[in-house]
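Fold this sequence, please.
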Amino acid sequence: MSNEVVIITQARMTSTRLPGKILMRAGERTLLETHLDRLADVGVPVIVATTTNLSDDPVVELCAALDVPVFRGSENDVLARYQGAARAHEARHVIRVTSDCPLICPDVIRAGLDTYLSLKSGSVYLSNAEKRTYPRGLDFEIFSRYSLDFAAENARLSSEREHVTGYIRTSMPDIHHEYYLDEENLSHWRITVDTDDDFKLVKLLIEDHHAAEMDYPSLKGLLKAHPDLEKINFHIQQKTI
């Protein structure tokens, strides 16, 4: 049965800066559980795209317990992994997110998806991260299955295959870029988990402030009310692609 839209989130245990981070716990749940729970509120099917590595067996086991479908593919050719996941679930459009964003906001993704679908085009790439106003950790990209298949068949550079949308963004013929922007630029905030200090912040947000139950306006209000929180990981430099 085909799906109009699916969310595919990439997840693996072999993070270079913080190995095993997606199964670290904040509150009573792992970061991956919180991530998947929030994605479920978008209202479209969610698939976890992980690797065939034995180290990712715990990811598969957790997803099985949560009744979340998994697709396993190459560790380094993430583009092919995404294509395999999209094919397996007969998706017509894909929302790409990453599992190091436990506090990703479903209300933001849903609004972005509504905008994307209103354009009624298979040649649109819409993201809130290409021109950034949202904090890191709320990133999403939306594109058609046609664009994904075309990229998988034509991308040659290892960087294009490792980072999934590089070919779509820079080399896809006739692609139309749409930038999903917030009225306020808070791109200097980090709510992603890539280092110990990132995890320290997210753990505090979840355990002390119940951030896992918040929509984006509430999360924004929380961080503005506690400016000391953003200082915890303000010094972290994002890895370059």
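Residues 106-119 form the longest helix (14 residues). The first strand starts at residue 3 and ends at 10.
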